[in-house]
Structure formats: C-alpha cells, structure tokens
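PT: before anyone asks, these are the final sequences, not the draft ones from last week. 553 residues across everything. Please model them as a single complex and drop the result in this thread when it's through.
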Amino acid sequence: MALLELSNIHTYYGGIHALKGLTIKVEAGEVVTLIGSNGAGKSTTLKSICGQVKAKEGKVHFNGADITGKKPHDIAALGIAHVPEGRRIFSKLTVRENLEMGAFSVSDKRLVEEGIERAFHYFPRLKERISQKGGTMSGGEQQMLAIARGLMMKPKILMLDEPSMGLAPILVEQIFEIVKELNENGMTILLVEQNANQALSVAHRGYVIQTGQIILQDEAATLLQDPQVREAYLA
Amino acid sequence: MENMLQILPQVLVDGLTLGFMYAVVALGYTMVYGILEFINFSHGEIFMVGAFIGTEVLLIMDALGGLQGLNPFIALLMALVISMIITGMLGVGIERVAYRPLRNSPRLVPLISAIGVSFLLQDVVRFAEALHRDAFYLTGPILFPGKLDIGIAQIPTKALIVIVTAIVLMIVLSFFINKTKWGIAMRAVAQDQSTASLMTINVDKVIMLTFLIGSSLGGATGVLFAQNYGTIDPYIGFILGMKAFTAAVLGGIGNVRGAMVGGVLLGVIESLSGAYLGPLTNGAFGGEYKDVIAFSILILVLLFKPEGLFGEAVKEKV
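LR: through. Structure below.
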C-alpha cells in the first residue's frame, strides 16, 4: 500500500463541487506533484488530506490507516506536515518560536534543538533571523521558515502548497533545490504547484488536475513532453 | 490646594489598588478576545463567584477555629488557591456548555449566551447565600487590618496585599505566555487557528486553557476585592467587569500588556477624579461622577483610537 492514498474523494464548498472523485497515490520516498490552474482544486486536495476540509465521499489512507474525517491536529500528529498556501507563518512570533511550534508534538527538548539545527542546515538565512518576528521577514525568508517549520515535526510526508508563489525567480530556484535535497535525504513530498515546469523537473510523478478531476497522470518526465500539458501549463 | 496635595498619596494608593484589580480581571477579557474575538461578558460574574468562594473559605475556616493563630498569608493563599481552582473549572465548564456549541454561529449569539450566563451566576450565588446565610451579601474576616506608615501617607496593609498579589499573578502569567510551550501555542492560536492545528496543536485544548487561566485570575481578583472592601454581594461583578473591560479596550483588546497598563491607568484616573472632581469644579460635579469619567474614556478610546494604546490597527480575519 502506498504511504498516502486518496480514493474517490468528493469535496464540496457550500454548493460548489470542488473535488469530483479524486484518486491519487504517493509512495514513500517519492516527490509527487499536483499541477493545475488556479481554482482547479489543488489546495482543496491538500486540505482534504490534512482534515481542514471534510470530504463528503471517499477515503484518505495514510501509512495503512484510514484518516478520513479525523481532526487536523490528530492527522498532523501522524506525521503529515502541511506547509499551507501563502506560508501562514505566525507573524507575531519570532523565528525561533515559529520553529518551536512546528515541533509542538515533540516533547524531548533535545530533539527540538536538533530540529532547529537541521533547519539551519537547509536554511542558513533563518539562523541570522532567529529572534526576529516572523512578519518582519521577506517573502522568500517566510517561505523558508514555513518549510523549516513543517520539517520540525520530523514528518513522514511533507505537503507543500505553492511554495514558489510570489517569489523572485532566483528564490524559486533555491526552494526547488531544497525540495530536491530533502527528497534525496529520504523525505516524501507532495508538491502542489502552478509553476508546472519547475515542479515537474523535481518530481518523479505528476498529476494534472482540472476542475476537481485528475485528467492526466504519468512520470514527470513524460508529462513535461506531453503536448497537452505543454500547451496548457508550460506555455 | 494644600489639602488636595495632602490626600494625593492616599488617592494614588486607592487608585493603584483598584487599578491592579481591573488589570487582572481585564486579562481574562483580553485573553479570551485574543483567541476567539468574543467578549466573554460573564467574566465579571466569575470574579464575583471568586469573591464569594474566597470569603466563604475564610468564614468556614474561622468558624472551625482555624483562623486563630494561623499566619494570615497562609490563610490568604488558601482562599486564593481554592477560589482559583473552582473559578478556573467554572470558566472551562461555561465555555464547554455555553460557548463552544455556538462557536460557528453569528457573533451576537455567543454574546447573548454570555449575558445569560451572567444572570444565571448572579442568581445562583444570591440564592445559595440567601439559603445558607439568610442574606445575599457577605462580610468576611479581614486578614490584614493594619496600616503601614510611610511618612507621607498611611497605606492600608490590605491595599499592599492586593497590589503585590496582582503583580505576582501578572509576572507568572507573562512568563507562561512568553516562555512556555503552551503559552507560545496560545499566541499561535490567537493569530491563526487553522495553521496552529497543522502543527498538531489542539485548538480546543488551548481555548480551554485560556478560559482556565483567565477565569482563575478573575476568581483570584474576587478574593482580593473582598479582602479590600469587606462586604460583597452578587452584583459586584457587573460594574467591575465593565470597568475591567474598559481597561482592556483602553490598552488594546487582545493585548496582554495593554490590559495590564490599561487597568492600572483606569484605576488611577478613576480615583483621581473621585477625589478631585468636586473641589476642582467647586462642587458642580462630585466624586460620584467617577464612573462617568471611566466610561467616557471608553467612548473616547473607541472614537479616536479604537485599537487602544498597545493594540495594532484592526485587520479583519479572513
């Protein structure tokens, strides 16, 4: 069984049928990307996994257990780190406090300190900003903090929602480099992106979502060459 | 004029005593507002219940002969701890029963529920006291009847007890909020509940904790109030609650430091106006206008600086 498996998920926002029978799979050790245009249902998919949105139909399985309908904090505690769209760092908390909150489920203080050191290894910039309030940092630094905060719980899977949004090209490169490095060190990653080119170049496999349905799925390299994908998302 | 200066130290001590009580009660309003954007109007009644519990504890100890020879500090500590535990649990219970089921309702609905809880608490206390003591007001033993002479004024010991206890409570609270894991989680939840839950933080638990702490602080202040003023009745929570709420708004509702400063400031302003309004206006306005001054401050703050002294300009949460 795959590490994460969504089968036939239907989600509604009020009267809007946002996800129409979505089925996706993420195997341990993979980078899987979900690409699609604005409003296609990418974020809703992640929210259905982490419990922020309740699926009306269908099942979510993680690590062999059915997690459908569980509360977000219980789902997160199973090892699912969700780095939400727009970063959502705690702007009035310091960088250090943000990281400590990421490790809320870790009770051993030594492990928390190790986690912070690990975060500094991936994001040396954060070390200089350690006692600064999160909200005073630049967009790129905030994105780094959001990812670092997600890693603090030592998750089994990291879900990134549009990490490249609003960042300068050089920062986008950096973020995707780190995604690659994290995966090489064993992290399973589910990456939601509008930036299909970048996403497909770091991913193993990809899904293309359109109005709440998966319309294409394949090896990332194959999708990069697919004429339909090229025209719709890589133009 | 000379006379006015002579009473100044006394007036300031009165103001600080009152102000520190406002400040600690204001913390309960501001902490709950910070997380739920909800004004817990029953908080004043929690304070009142705390006053009754503390006074009853002392009366019962006295009746059993336990107050004789007992160090008054230990007696006060016992009254405070018992009152804080019970009011803390009361606050948590009220949140569970009267607010949590309404959390996704329009804002007015939990507010009305809170007003209902206020009346309920007033009447339950009145009923219980009337049944048990044949009167609904209560006069407890005063543990610190003395006065401390500092040269320019004589400070009642009980006023010092109020101020010192309030300061200790505020220091402990500040440490908790700023330095402990659950305290930081409380601030995280105040900023962004849904993101906090992604960090495995149980938001309901943090809200419970907020009510537990806020209510026990309110209860502790009730004990201090009863010690300072002697006689209490089931209606003391209303006006004090309104003033503490004013203090919270003055400091910037949702802001812990603001509640502390706002409370002390309001107490001192109120005491000064109570003492000097009469002489300054040749008796046109007397000290009884002090409440008018307090609530005029509320109106002025709302008009000209709605975010309060320490608050940030309000952003609507999305």
